[in-house]
Design brief:
about 140 residues; mainly alpha; 6 helices; about 80% helix
């Protein structure tokens, strides 16, 4: 095992001297780029085209929330701020607006009294929290 490791290290050292750069560093760069690309793909909001092509296959319960979820995801992605605090507030306002929209769907469509009660609580609480976040001002720098 030690001999194999020595040979591999020697091969890496020789290939780095061939003018092609450090292969370990190159592999790390390629892996980082692949990871970044995968992260962007996983966190990107679904496009309207993707949403339209899959929503008709979804069960009615999922379809009821599809528009509010797509709108929330788009607004959260577009929300920004110059600082972490400002970005947090901007994104959380949009997140809460999405929760309010989903609660309103539940209030409109559900006949279950427990669901309607929970949806009302969510709508009321998130609406208050949105107002609180909109009123937030950054703390003065020390």
């Amino acid at each position: 095992m030690r001999a194999v490791l020595t040979v591999l290290l020697a091969a890496l050292a020789l290939s780095a001297c061939d003018g092609g750069g450090d292969p370990v560093q190159q592999a790390l760069r390629e892996t980082a780029a692949a990871n970044q690309s995968a992260t962007v793909r996983e966190t990107a909001p679904p496009s309207a085209r993707d949403h339209a092509s899959t929503s008709h296959d979804a069960p009615p319960g999922d379809q009821a929330f599809a528009a509010s979820e797509a709108a929330m995801n788009g607004r959260m992605t577009a929300a920004s701020g110059g600082t972490v605090d400002q970005a947090y507030i901007a994104r959380m306002i949009e997140h809460h607006r999405g929760a309010v929209a989903m609660g309103e769907v539940a209030l409109k469509e559900s006949r279950d009294p427990d669901i309607r009660r929970m949806a009302r609580v969510v709508v009321d609480a998130r609406t208050r929290e949105i107002a609180e976040m909109q009123a937030w001002k950054p703390a003065p720098a020390n």
